[in-house]
Each structure stands twice: as structure tokens, then as C-alpha cells.
Specification:
With about 375 residues, the chain is an alpha/beta fold. It contains 14 helices and 13 strands. About 40% of the residues lie in helices and about 15% in strands. The strands form 3 sheets. It has a 7-stranded mixed beta sheet with strand order 2-8-7-6-5-3-4, sandwiched between helices. It has a 4-stranded antiparallel beta sheet with strand order 9-10-13-12, with helices on one face. About 45% of the residues are buried. The structure holds pyridoxal-5'-phosphate.
Amino acid sequence: MSCDLTLLANEAIRGLSPYQAGKPESELARELGISDIVKLASNENPLGPGELASKAAQAAISQLHRYPDSNGFFLKQALATKLKVTPQQITLGNGSNDLLELLARTFAGPDSQVIFSQYAFVVYPIATQAVGATAVVTPANAYGHDLDAMLTAINDTTRLIYIANPNNPTGNYLTPDALQRFLAQVPERVIVVLDEAYFEYAEHDADHAIAWLAQFRNLVVTRTFSKAYGLASLRVGYSVSDPAIADLLNRVRQPFNVNAIALAAAEAALADDVYLQRSVELNRAGMAQLEAYFERAGFTYIPSKGNFITFDLEQPALPVYQQLLQEGVIVRPIVPYGLPNHLRVSVGLESENQRFIDAMQKLGIKGEK
Ligand SMILES: *Cc1c(COP(=O)(O)O)cnc(C)c1O
């Protein structure tokens, strides 16, 4: 007798829905037989990889037969120097996604609760559910995190709170003051994961989150090389925390979770201030270009501190998404976030943003403002 293999999975896994990634250009090319595609769907850096990172990656190829440095010595050193922390506070991950999952595995389980906000990054519910923990989703406040609601939701079984700042897909930003007041009220037994994947794009007067680590031992800051550093394909991110937390994460991670090319390229990217600055400036200009279009066309948009912007179509977004695909423009529907009338557009090169704008105009899609 044949059995239903799906039912063999543990209960937490059976209830999971897979992460829906942005559509790859090559997939659309196959489907429609077109080239000249613009992808504004995954918040990637439109500049391409920096030259220093590319060179370092190419040099690392000669050692492909060797396992990578399991402890990522040089990258941790470089990060520690830059952030003024110790290497013992750093954990490297296969993308920061890896760290978000390791944190759930380390601190949460079937008897615990994990708090995150409505409209927050979709990896939080996946990581929570995969370890059998209970998700407590606090209602958003104007699409952003309601920190008071999150504080109120804490109970004896709360182990973890995820906060994305800026948040994806809404781009909302919490001020340092608001976050610091929040952290001061969270019991030390609750781990706060501050996901700063878009840190480099938001304007900062100081690196507040890293400074807070001295004060709040339950704080974990995660960052990535996928966005402003332009290395999404290599999968490398990191967390900064108390060394005791880093030690725990180190016990559960795969021994070689970051490959040698990624280690080398990330270290080089970290030293490439010119590339980072160009990336941030290009993003600022592109954001202004897209905002001006949304204003002209009468769309309400959510002001964003990231490298993407989410706007309200005031009609179901999926048909518009499909029509844009026909025009060779890939954006991101965010139906899984409970935002069926919104689309998220990553900030691209000026010409790419214009392709999106031209396609919207050609299709005659306007806002109602
Ligand atoms: C893109 C993103 C990440 C992680 O990306 P990685 O490529 O896994 O480093 C994490 N958090 C948020 C909010 C993101 O948007």
C-alpha cells in the first residue's frame, strides 16, 4: 500500500508554504521568448558587483578544491574592525536569511512564541513555523511596526522578536529613539533580532544598533552583503551579538555555511567605499525618480528607506503584474504579505526605472489620487 509521503513530515513542516522569490529574468525570457528584460523584483543592486569584489571572487576560484575557512577568519576580522566589535561577536551566514533561521532554531521551539509585525519580512513566519513555534503577529501601524503592540504581546513563552528596519516590503523605518526605548522595555530573556538588511541605504547619524549591543545583551543585529554591497548571488550575511549568542549560533550552523568565494568577495566589498557610496547615491536618485512618477500618476506609495518602494494600485495587483511581465518588466506582487492591491518595485538604474514607468503609461495604468 502506498503512503502519502507528505504526511510523514513533522507537523510544523507540513503546514509551511515555500518562499516565493522574485521571477528570474531567464525564466521570463524562456516563457515569452523575449530578451531586454528589466528585473526590479528582488531589491538587488542594479550597478552589478563592485570591481574589487569581482576580482577577489575570481582569485578565490583557484582554491575551489579546498573547503572554505569554516570560521571565516578574515571576513570576521574585517567586519570587527569596521564595526568596532570583536570577532567573537560575529556569526557569518549563508545570506542573513541563514542567521534568521539559525536564531529561530536556537531560541524557539514548539512551546514558545515568536513575535513579529504584520507586513514584516516573510522569512520570519517561515522560520518560526519551521521550528514549530507559535507566531504572534502584531497589527501594523501605517504599514510599519507597532512597537507598543509588540511589547504588549510579550509573555512568559516569548523567546524571539523579529524587527526589520527598514522593513521589507513596506520600507518603513523606525527611529533610533523609538527602537532604543523599545529595547529598554524588553525583558533580557527575550532575544530581539534587529534585521538591518537595508542599513546602508537608510541615512544614519551613527551606527546605533551596534552601539546598543553593549547595553542590551539580548540584541542581535543582522546585516547582509546582498543588497547595497551587490553580492546577492553569493549568499553572505552576518549577525553581531553578545559572544554567548554567537557561540550558540556557531553550534547549530553548518560547518561550511559560507563558501570561499563569498568570504573573499565580501571582505573586498567591505573595503570598497566608493562602490557603496555610488550605490547609495544611485538609489537616492532612483527613489526620487519613482516617487515623482507615483505623484504624477496619482498613486499612493509608502515612503521607503530601502532600495525599493511599494505603491497602492487600488485594484488587484496580480493582473497588472502580469501585464508588466508582457512588457518585459518584472516587479514584485506582495499578495503573500496580505497586500493584494500593492506592488513593490526595486530601485534600478535610471533607464530601468524609466522602462517601468513607460510600461505603466503604455498600459494606461493610473492612480486615483
Ligand atoms: C533581503 C532581505 C534579507 C536577507 O537577504 P540575504 O540575501 O539572505 O542576506 C533579510 N531581511 C530582509 C528584510 C530582506 O529584505
